[in-house]
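Bug #77: duplicate submission created two jobs. Keeping one. Sequence:
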Amino acid sequence: MVKKSEIFQFLYLKKEPVLFKLVITLLILSCGFMLKRSFSEQSIILTLSHSIQEYSTAKDYYKEHLAKQENDAIKIVSKSEEPQIGVVIIGESTSRWHMQLYNYNRETNPILSKMKEEFYLFDDVIAPDVMTIRSLEKALTLSNYEHPKVDKNFSIVQLANAADFDTFWISNQQPVGFTESTPTIIATAAKHKQFLATDSYFYNIHDESLIPEVKKALKTKSNRKLIFVHLIGTHRIYAKRYPKRFNYFEGVNERTQYKTEYSKAKVNEYDNAVRYNDFVLSEIIKMVKTENKNSFVVYFSDHGDDVFDTQDFVGHHNNKGSKPMYDVPFLAWFSNDYLKSNKKIDTLDSYKSRKYNTEDFIYSFSDIINVEFEGFDATRSLFNLNFEERKRIIKNNLDYDTWE
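Kept job's structure:
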């Protein structure tokens, strides 16, 4: 019998498209009956089989429109010329349902909780989808639920380039595989690119390896820079997302809806990963703060996971879609210099409970870097006085805010 680890390694190391599709098809037909619960819950084979066509189509589309540094679709109306440092941190699989910052019953954010007065925490933000490809194609570009394919589309990286920022993309996710069609191809538009992780998700990958690289980017000579940091975050397998020193939680959490030995282990591992994520985020904020310049840090996750919160299931999948998979953290930190030169930010305390979908992030991003492009819509920016709440449509035309 073929071992699972060998199958996984084979899947992730082979890059030939035809052979790759053949292997997936054979695995679906021959191995389905052998899958144990822990494997089936990750829904890997199902996800891959459903994503093959989407992967191929999206990859060609993104390479044509979003992979180049310059994009003729961008028409800058106005922009600030002031020196500025911006850091956008994109998380992975992190649900606010397991964050102390959002009243989770465990201390999963011991550091950020102590820093809470230093940043703005938004408490009603959702992801547009529970899968990375579909979520980030919207969060990082002009695409949204109503207009999934935009004729003259561009990304936040290309927008930053057009506004004369020095752009950096620092990633801890493998640059090949099924996430390539969105973050990796978008990342190629950055002027400086680093992909630190070369192994698949089934190996130990820890986000603190990003910290020295972010520090190097902060120390570069350019006085207008935007640094995009793509975390491995709390992606399954959870126990491989944090070093042993963060093996903190044990026992059964009383909030866990489905209590078994398996759920106990997975919840503890996920909470350890969230606690480690807290450490990484706080370190990056502290580094930017130390620069003592006109700067900001924004963090949100691509989607969340349901870890036995609402169903007997762990992970994320459209067929199992639940609120923990859509409910994501969103925080924004601004330096004193930034706040002094951007008085509009003073009103953010009243904005923190706005109903917001990260599919509109490109407008919020444009707002905080003080760049207005042709087609900019202030009503879609979380940071704008003119923001208007709109229906947050998910799945197959489901209104998130009326979803029971």
